[in-house]
Amino acid sequence: MPVYEYVAINQAGREIKGRIDAENERVARQRLRKDALFPTSVIETASAADSKTQNVLKYLQSDRVSLKELSLTTRQFATLLTAGLPLVSALQVLGEQSESSTMLRVLVLIREQVEEGASLAKALAAHPRIFPRLYTNLVAAGEASGTLDQVLEKLADYLEGQLALRGKLFSAMTYPVVMLIVCFLVIVGLMVGVIPRIVEIFIKQNLQLPLPTQVVISLSNFLIAYWWALIVGAVLIAAALSRYYQQEQGRSQIDKLLLKLPIFGPVYVKVLTARIASTLSALIGSGVELLRALEITKNIIGNVHVVKLLEEAREGVKEGKNLSREILKHKILPTMLSRMIAIGEKSGDLETMLSKAATTYDNEVNSSLQGLTSLLEPLLMVTVGVIVLVIVVSVLLPMTELINAVAI
């Protein structure tokens, strides 16, 4: 009888690994579900000869999907349920329409679990690398309230908003990054390709080179001789920074620096604010209680100082304090967010005010990114122009002396 290695989620939400004997994969999955385990992976054990090949295939097989794919699937799911399709039928149609092999495989597993009596939220929770806690909690709230189609609509709106925000950030940074790369290549081309040829002329004429020219020639010689050292150094610095960021103290210092950076810092804070407001609005609007919403929201925010703010705000709310005051006292997020939350608390419509706050800060992020791009473009041009001018002048100075010597 074949032996299968499995990875499953138990009722406590923990990942369990093990082996099971079964006639085929489907029977193995059924036995695991009878034991209150929800399998995420069931693979027949390979022979020693095939083990290396299977490990490579397992490594290459992705168990993630893009935010765009998840957003599109959620929108289609909401549309199918709104049209009146039963849950299982909707999952089957989604699988047939999916262009992602990973999403197709996961949707088949989810449909099987739902057919066997599992809730949709529990089936989704068995795939945490695709469906985050925010997603599964919203779905659970929708199932409990009988408004799953409406919750999925809100979830699709939320994911599309996050996708749009990511697109704005990418678009804003694309041009400056391309400009930097092009300018870097131009400067390296001058230093490595042009300067050495001109230097040969200077050497043949035994010219006394001025200091700027000597500096440029030294830099050119260094680039030609030690280009590999620069690459190795850059890789080592990047690795050191990555390792430092993984440490608690390092991450705290870098995250604090990101919040305080001139020009970039305010934009980063607005991005975090928009994300917090939109996430809380989506959760509260779907029936998730505030304490739970704060707990989920902190897990999708990457900055440790903002995470700490949300943790302390949650404890304050738990003690009966106002969320607006708890956020205000940390002085990290904008004051206007606290004021809008305070209005929502007084009016009893916190979801609406958070939604308006998210829209406001989305617009501010867009304006800030446009302003940042407008500032970076001329700044980069001027900086590169000055560098090129210095190189050209350093070359022209001895050439002027050479021309004068020939004229005499």
Low-confidence stretches: 47-61
CATH superfamily of the largest domain: Type II secretion system (T2SS), domain F
How big is the Rg? 29 Å
Residue share in helix: over 70%
CATH architectural type of the largest domain: Up-down Bundle
State the CATH class of the largest domain.
Mainly Alpha
Q: What's the total number of strands?
A: 3
Describe the structure.
There is one protein chain. The protein has helices spanning 25-34, 48-60, 67-82, 87-97, 101-115, 120-125, 133-145, 148-204, 211-246, 248-260, 264-285, 290-298, 304-318, 323-328, 335-347, 350-407; strands at residues 3-9, 15-21, 38-44. By secondary structure, the chain is mostly helical. A hairpin with a 5-residue loop joins strand 1 (3-9) and strand 2 (15-21). The N and C termini lie far apart (99 Å).
Task: Jot down its keywords.
mainly alpha, Receptor-associated Protein, 3 domains, three-stranded antiparallel sheet, extended, 408 residues
Helices, strands, pairings?
Blueprint: E1 3-9, E2 15-21, H1 25-34, E3 38-44, H2 48-60, H3 67-82, H4 87-97, H5 101-115, H6 120-125, H7 133-145, H8 148-204, H9 211-246, H10 248-260, H11 264-285, H12 290-298, H13 304-318, H14 323-328, H15 335-347, H16 350-407
Antiparallel strand pairs: 1-2, 1-3
Helix pairs in contact: 3-4, 3-8, 4-5, 7-8, 8-9, 8-11, 8-16, 9-16, 10-11, 11-12, 11-16, 12-13, 15-16
